[in-house]
Amino acid sequence: MFGYSMAEIGNIVVMQGFSGLSMFTVLLLMALGLAIIFGQMGVINMAHGEFMTIGAYTTVMISKVAASYGFTDYYFIFAIIIAFGLAFAVGYLVEFAIIRHLYKRPLDTLLATWGLSLVMQQIFRSTFGAKEVSAELPEWMLGSVNPTPDIDIPINGLFVMGLAALVTFGVYMFMYKSRWGLRVRATVQNRTMAGAVGINTAKVDRVTFALGCGIAGIAGAAFTTIASTGPTTGTLYIVDSFMVVVFGGAASIVGTIASAFGIAQAQSVLQFFMTSSMGKVSTLLAIVTILMMKPEGLFASKLRK
Amino acid sequence: MTLWEKMCASDLLGGKQGVIGLAVLAAVIFLVLPLGVDIFRLNLIGKYLTYAFVAVGLVLLWGHGGILSLGQGIFFGLGGYAMAMFLKLEASDPITTKIQSTPGIPDFMDWNQLTALPWFWEPFKSLPFTIFAVLTIPALFAYIIGYAMFKRRVGGVYFSIITQAVALILSILIVGQQGYTGGVNGMTDLRTMLGWDIRTDSAKYILYYANGLLLFGAIFLSKYVMSSKFGMLLLAMRDKEERVRFSGYDVSNFKIFIFCLAAMMSAVGGAMFTLQVGFMSPSFVGIVPSIEMVIFCAVGGRASLIGAVYGTLLVNYGKTVFSETYPELWLFLMGGLFIAVVMFFPNGIAGIWDKYATKYGWFKDKAVTAKKPEVSTTGVETHAVLTETLSAEAAAATESTDVAASVKKTTRKKAAISSPNIRGAEA
């Protein structure tokens, strides 16, 4: 097959699979934020990619500061927290200024947030320059693990996977096991009724939106470990992450994880055997075809509309 | 009855105000602009006017049908590429391309080691087939997408996201398949159409006027569609889709039809773009151009055909001026425009115009009085629809109080049909 022996193919699949896993984690973190914003609130946030870029630039900046003061080894933890905080704060402001006026017009939210993404991209370009920048990674993140001589697994990939697992678990706990999550779900299911029992729905909306943006910020921090950041980095991922959310079934965390995994793996493996663009095209085409046959996504919640 | 009165009385043109609006637009496009600017600028305006085809299609699809497609660039691109393929084949005759290793095929194919013309290029040697392809291929593509989605009742934001993904797929595909499509540079160096040099000044004037006439054709076609019963149904679908469905109409077929029509208009725009600009590239197919075309329409007023043309001209003029002088400022302005239009002027320029025109009573004469009956006749039709709805719902024995309430609401809404209130419509 394609001029490779079986053993080689095995190794390729493992290694491409692993490079797919790094992409999977970024997609998953992006999509988790979107799943909260889009799946729960029904808001299309086209600027979601730019919130990821906020997180990425924050991490890069902190790594530069850390490098000059010599605490490169542990800055990453702070970077994640600050990236989350910053993206959360910007998301909070955006909800207050724009989104809350448009809840009844989802298509218009889409256009407004697209405008927002243009503005944010230009802010990044004016502030950080058009050139891509990358973070100084801590020493311990640079090596790789070799379970067999032919297989090479980078440590930064393992690290962001751990991070993604943690965040996913956190989101699950927040949405399904906490008081806040209960309020969020109540507001989504029946806004009027939730308001009647004393939930401050406006506040719930604002925090939910900000939380989704904050998670995108974490995605940005994870992103810096695998690629360099530019002003338009976020736009490269926005369609993919929307596909992940829609494909997985908008309101389901399991669906989001499964579809992020499937899409990232399919792209990564196909890109090895075909050209990079054809790999992407065939993956997206497959998703669109499946969505046309099953519009509610893979793991649709069984709700009566 | 003079011709003027006849025109003012016709439903198709939308009363006196509609006739004046069209006349002013015609004067601007056919007289003021060609006389006022040099041929370089006029060619640029001609390019903008090709986007206006897309914007006019979006008025039908989005402003009146409530379907937001973020993939109109697909159809613009398909139309443009079909025309570009014909022109490219004509530009690559064996004599001019004799230095290539395979003479007679387009230069980019030669660079990509292709030795024969791919089969799907063959029919584009004929102009009639090309025109046929410009009109049918995008419409067919729209039919497939529309059929798959609307028949399964996928609508709203899902439709937008999926059309956006299709636009992304097509642009990646065009960039990736360099040997067949010219890749990221697109198809350049287009020279003649059936031996007629399209790069001369006289050809540019002729193409500009042809483009303007076709645009007016598209506007009249849209006016015809909007003033027909189908146009009424479209509005009804936008405001209360379920109600139209319960009345026994097959909503999905109407949606598919309007999507195909908008696609066809976009494709004509794309073909005219190729002819006037002399090249076609994937940068007019992908996500960004597709969504920019939506903003042209939104700025002009999503429900107004003439507004959409002005919106397109204005935004593109602004883009050219600002990206020449202050490139950094342009994205801020464009972004701000998206946000401002959506939040403060959902009806765009046309909305502002309507507000002040009625406020100062500029058209408070025969036109308005002649227009009144039009609204009430449409009201009668709406009542017919509603009566059907009522019986259907009564048969289903649903909550009668709710129906009564919504009847009141819907009638009120229909009275404002000539200038749709978006806030009310989507609430």
Automatic annotation (TrEMBL), chain A:
Q: Which residues are listed as membrane-spanning?
A: 20-39, 51-69, 75-94, 153-175, 209-230, 242-263, 270-293
Q: What is this protein called?
A: Urea ABC transporter permease subunit UrtB
**Mind telling me which InterPro entries this protein's record contains?**
ABC_transp_permease (IPR001851), ABC_UrtB_bac (IPR017779), BCAA_transport_permease (IPR052157)
Q: From what organism does this protein derive?
A: Methylophilus aquaticus
Q: Which UniProt keywords apply?
A: Amino-acid transport, Cell membrane, Membrane, Transmembrane, Transmembrane helix, Transport
Top-level taxon of origin: Bacteria
What main location does UniProt list?
membrane
Family assignment from sequence similarity = Belongs to the binding-protein-dependent transport system permease family. LivHM subfamily.
Gene name for this UniProt entry: urtB
Q: Where is the protein situated, by its record's location annotation?
A: Cell membrane
- Identify the Pfam families for this entry: BPD_transp_2
Protein topology in the membrane: Multi-pass membrane protein
Automatic annotation (TrEMBL), chain B:
Q: Which domain of life is it from?
A: Bacteria
Tagged with keyword Transmembrane helix: yes
Key words of the record: Cell membrane, Membrane, Transmembrane, Transmembrane helix
Q: Where in the cell is it found?
A: Cell membrane
Name the residues that span the membrane.
20-40, 52-78, 127-150, 157-180, 206-235, 256-281, 293-317, 329-353
- Membrane topology (UniProt): Multi-pass membrane protein
For this protein, the record's InterPro entries field holds: ABC_transp_permease, ABC_transptr_urea_perm_UrtC, LivM-like
Instruction: Name the principal localization, coarsely classed.
Output: membrane
> NCBIfam families in the record, alphabetically?
urea_trans_UrtC
Q: Note the PANTHER family from the entry.
A: HIGH-AFFINITY BRANCHED-CHAIN AMINO ACID TRANSPORT SYSTEM PERMEASE, SLR1201 PROTEIN
* Protein known as: Urea ABC transporter permease subunit UrtC
Taxonomy, top ranks, is: Bacteria, Pseudomonadati, Pseudomonadota, Betaproteobacteria, Nitrosomonadales
